[in-house]
Amino acid sequence: MTIQSVVVEQPTLGFEAEKKIKLIDIEADKLVASGEFTVPDENAFGRSFRDYENANNERHRLVEELYHQQHVHQTFEFVKKTREEYGKLEKGEMSIWECCEVLNDIVDDSDPDLDEPQIMHLLRTAEAIRKDYPNEDWLHLTALIHDLGKILIHPNFGGLPQWAVVGDTYPVGCGFSETIVHHKQHFRENPDYKNPEYNTKFGVYSEGCGLNNVMMTWGHDDYMYLVAKENGTTLPSAGLFIIRYHSFYPLHKGEAYRYLMNDEDRENLKWLNIFNKYDLYSKSKVPINVEEVKPYYQSLIEKYFPAKLKW
What positions does the entry give for Fe cation 1 binding (predicted)? Predict the structure, then answer.
């Protein structure tokens, strides 16, 4: 593994429409799981999932402060500059599995449901999907890699603050939806909040423009999408959509911003909705034998990715 240490300037990818990736030829709304995924009643802390209102625990206070920083600092200009910087993919070279192992040192401070290394969450999600959808190997691999963009927190990748890496994502360059977590508390401190170019319903976008033409808050989702796409992955369009928008809870839970979607987005959203329950509700303490499942996922990595990727 070769990782180049780089000093990252705080927050320019030109934001233009990107080429379409092949569509998967299976209709998600007609696909039935082969098993029964049971949604647990409690998260790893014994509380309800995605509970952002429990102010009496330290984990909640940590999460709320992260969103405070995110809502203040994630502006249109910040995202544009940061996306351009990281879109160069000059931080180093390593394989997908090497990146999984690096994530052993990273805990997501935005997640109220889990406080352990990311690789266990990735494998639990992938294994749960694999059990219910055994024939969709691209979906198993998508689950394994969907959070690898959190490598941005690592010091050798610039050590970005967690508010610039994790947390729910949402569009910048248009008005902030009330479905965004902690919407009422902090957005007034964001410079875009009072900017007439960015604070209307559509902002700099147009109805049905397609999410591919919308800038999202910068973080691990969009970074991993860029890494996969620019390294020539053969994952289907739905896989890349899941990677890029799996934290876009205002859309797939709050049903906000749907007026920006096009037909391809709506098809891919069906797959994201399938994926989401596994991503969210597999956050438990069920152990996974890494060495036992590693050969299977290594075979998928070889099928859909080059041996080494630029990051």
Answer: 121, 146-147, 246, 279
247 is in an annotated binding site: yes
Task: Dig out the tokens for 256 from the structure.
Answer: 């906000």
Annotated ligand binding at 168? The verdict is yes
Ligand-binding annotation for 146, yes or no, is yes
**Is 235:141 a contact under the CB 8 Å cutoff?**
yes
- pLDDT tens sequence across 13-53: 333 333 333 344 444 444 445 455 455 455 344 444 445 45
**284 assigned binding-site residue:** no
Annotated ligand binding at 246? The verdict is: yes
3-state secondary structure 194-240: HCCCCCCCCCCCCCCCCHHHCCECCCHHHHHHHHHHHCCCCCCHHHH
**Residue 174 Ramachandran class (φ > 0 left, ψ -120 to 50 alpha, else beta):** beta
Is residue 265 part of an annotated ligand binding site? no
Is 221 annotated as contributing to ligand binding? no
**Ramachandran angles phi, psi of 93, nearest 5°:** -130, 135
Mapped onto helix, strand or coil, the DSSP state of residue 85 is: helix
What does the alpha-carbon distance between residue 96 and residue 134 come to, in Å, rounded to a whole number? 21
CA angle 127, 128, 133 (to 5 degrees): 95
Structure tokens at 107: 């805990």
Q: Looking at per-residue confidence, does 59 or 191 come out higher?
A: 191
Q: Known binder of ligand: residue 34?
A: no
Q: Is 29 known as a binding-site position?
A: no
